[in-house]
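Hi support team,

I'm opening this ticket because the web form for multi-chain structure prediction keeps timing out on my end. I have pasted the exact lines I submitted so you can reproduce it. The total is 632 residues across two entries, so I didn't expect it to be a heavy job. Is there a limit I'm missing, or should I split the entries? Thanks in advance, R.K.
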Amino acid sequence: MANQIYIGVDLGGTNIKVGICDENGQLLHTYEGPTKVEDGAEAVLGRIADYVRKIVDDSDFTWDQVAGIGAGLAGFLDIPEGIVKFSPNLGWNNVQAKKILEEKLGKTVKIDNDANVAALGEAWSGAGAGIKNVVCYTLGTGVGGGIIIDSHIYQGSGGMAGELGHMSIVPDIEAINCGCGQVGCLETVSSATGIVRMANDAVERSEHTSLALLEKIAAKDVFDAAKQGDDVALRIVHRAAHYIGKSMASIAVVLNPQRFIIGGGVSKAGEILFTPIRETFLKFTPEQAREGVDIVPATLGNDAGVVGAAGLNLNH
Amino acid sequence: MANQIYIGVDLGGTNIKVGICDENGQLLHTYEGPTKVEDGAEAVLGRIADYVRKIVDDSDFTWDQVAGIGAGLAGFLDIPEGIVKFSPNLGWNNVQAKKILEEKLGKTVKIDNDANVAALGEAWSGAGAGIKNVVCYTLGTGVGGGIIIDSHIYQGSGGMAGELGHMSIVPDIEAINCGCGQVGCLETVSSATGIVRMANDAVERSEHTSLALLEKIAAKDVFDAAKQGDDVALRIVHRAAHYIGKSMASIAVVLNPQRFIIGGGVSKAGEILFTPIRETFLKFTPEQAREGVDIVPATLGNDAGVVGAAGLNLNH
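Hello R.K., no limit was hit. The queue was backed up. Here is the completed structure from your submission:
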């Protein structure tokens, strides 16, 4: 039999991105089209099936070469059953995504949540290629994560493994409420939202910062100001980095992964973020648990989701 | 072939305990004798081999029924190679324990560290029987731990997984140095040593506590005083419990285990320790990550090590 290909679907609220990967996780083709959430689940799943067929038809591969199809999306999922229990951005409730797609496509379909899938993508052919035990952070509006053990996504008993943004890491004395209902979650300080909140608080307190001149502060503005030497911005960036580093120190003695990968929009800030993360990690991790462990930026960017979704059907 | 049996060895600095388990992890026979560390590694390994042969000879089982032998000990190990790199309490350096025992016994031998092995024992036939994903804490002089994923010990990339005592969990502002070289480790507050230190500090500060009347304070004294309503002792117990609960809250969103098991001498304190641990866990863990997750005492006591060591040769 000829080479097998793996199809990945990144199902977002605005666009559906479909990709073909080879057996090594190399992304060969992508196709992107609108989700049109307003049409409802059945129509959106039909659109996914159309895009999948189209990308294969337009390639040099045959349908028989498709080893499986995977889809990543945001929401609460029943992963083994392939059911989307609730997805706020798609507006779905109890949608049998796996079953419906399998009927439409006649191939095995697997679904998983977007942060897990991005982690698998990075582990397969991105910043974690060749490494079996990886922990990925996705720093965006929130803080997501994924745990890759032995090259597979680790779901945990209730599918909540890798929810790194909800590690209770901020000391009680300075903790604020998190959207999840708890207090002191990593996400409250180390997400774009958290960084912007800290910047707005500083401006409101009339602290001396160039950020006060902006009409609306974005996380990127805080990093830019920090790079210019703005003390307040630097303090905010260091605080965001500090708690990421501390959370990694804990994970290092719980799971002892070989590599931490950081992706998502916030990670594009670069060394101004990574240097204090690494410093904090070194400070709080016992030597044996940090030996040979590195902290690196994700490399696949927005493709991590498609690649990881394709990888859901791999059996190494 | 008749039923298989599994031999476990708990190699301590004072005694060697050997046990026979059946396929369900039930401990059928045990034999205990002195380690005599001063005789050196070769003699101690010879003694283990003698005890193993003796316990089988004295039983109704035959040597052919022995499926494998496992040993748990404290130290830095190369687990796949079965080498004791360094064991302070045995005084061993680079001892090829697995190889030597296999030569002496003609059976497969596996070694692992004592906290991992105790965790496996509890997961196999103790408080975690029937559950696949378990995190165990051992609260003694230090705080040890073990991660059981899919009924097997998870070692991590460098063998440092499950070193729960070194989670950096105490906020910087109140953190003290840990023996591991880091600051704010769980072990500094939640081990017997940590509890005694906090009690001594309180007495030294002339706080009003019944503990001041004791010549030498043990962890049990602190729990006893707390049970009598001593406010200072209660505060110390709550602090020790608080950080265990917080560490579990983090683990719940990293690994999402189904059950936390707490063993070791300190765990015998009972509800006065478990209640505040559970309260803290509930406070800091998102609902989805604590649904169906329980926190229970270990049930095998001192046998956990022998049972878990026997379980090292299981392939579920």
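A quick check on our side: The mean pLDDT of chain A is 95. Let us know if the file doesn't open in your viewer.
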